[in-house]
Amino acid sequence: MRTSDYPFAEDAAGEVRAAGYSLDSLLNKTSFKAVRSRAAQRVSEAMSGTISESATNTQAEQLTELLSYPLARILVSCLDDSILVRRYALAEAKLAYKRMQEEREDLTAIADDLGLHPQGPGPFKIHFAEYIRAAHRMHSPKWKLTNRDLQQGYLTVTRDELMRIMEEAAREKILKGLPIPVDGKTCAALQEYLLPLKEQLDAIRARDRVDLGAVNEGAFPPCIKKMLNDVAKGTNLAHSARFALVSFLLQINMTPEEVMTLFSTSPDFDEERTRYQVEHIAGASGTSYKPPACATMATYGNCPGEDELCRKIRHPLSYYERRMRIFKPLPPERPPEQRT
Questions:
Q1: In degrees rounded to 5, what are phi and psi of residue 150?
Q2: What is the pTM of this model?
Q3: Are both 304 and 227 inside the same structural domain?
Q4: In total, how many domains does the chain have?
Q5: Per-residue pLDDT tens digits for 50-96
């Protein structure tokens, strides 16, 4: 098992420390240009969801792969974007999962590093507390504890299930370690790589968001107004309504932080959980979500009743766009002498 395949593990971190290369060398020396390029590639590809494999046949290639991981974490931290942080953590975990699938050796060592301690040659026994910690965000019914064969505090998982749980544990570990403190001098030394990454990030933001200018609550459709009123009163929204509201607000240029603030008065407000949900909808998983159409809103009971404009459109965003045209100020009237 190569440490370069799982660079988030403690063994890999120890190997990086033992190598003794200074940060200044990684940032500036020509001999480490391949490391810098691979680090930038990791971050760039993470924005799209998947980090590609890199050749690791020779010791030099393995060292490049190993050193590129901490440098990629520095790049992510310099960019200082919460959505990117989550996308990066997810993409690194997916890469690790792919390598696990190709792994011929025992996975116990890397599982132990991730806080999982599987017992047996497979199927494996895992303590329920470790299982819950790793699988609590996996929503398919098969992962629910009530659907597992729990006996004396342990449950059974197959090798494939263990790898999937390890992927999720890796994502959590990487995410909790970001962003890292980085000084301005370090970020300045990486501008050659940071500038195109920032342009790529801005392009993704522009692609995923409908540019409707400044937010105008007066242009909101009745369904969104009703949901906002309910949130303001401390009413817990149904999951379908919460998704519709969050995705709508993100699409009209509200930031994840602004959306989170709206939910802070809810009785069941959990900052970490809410942040995860909002940033997931905003695109942390690689896909940004748009609000459901009016017909779907009505199906889930989230339409409080149509007004005159509702009858002419099929989507809450279309309603908002129409209303925003009405709210736009008219151009100033030209003086009589300039008229033709």
A1: -75, 125
A2: 0.70
A3: yes
A4: 2
A5: 999 998 889 999 999 999 999 999 999 999 988 899 889 989 999 99
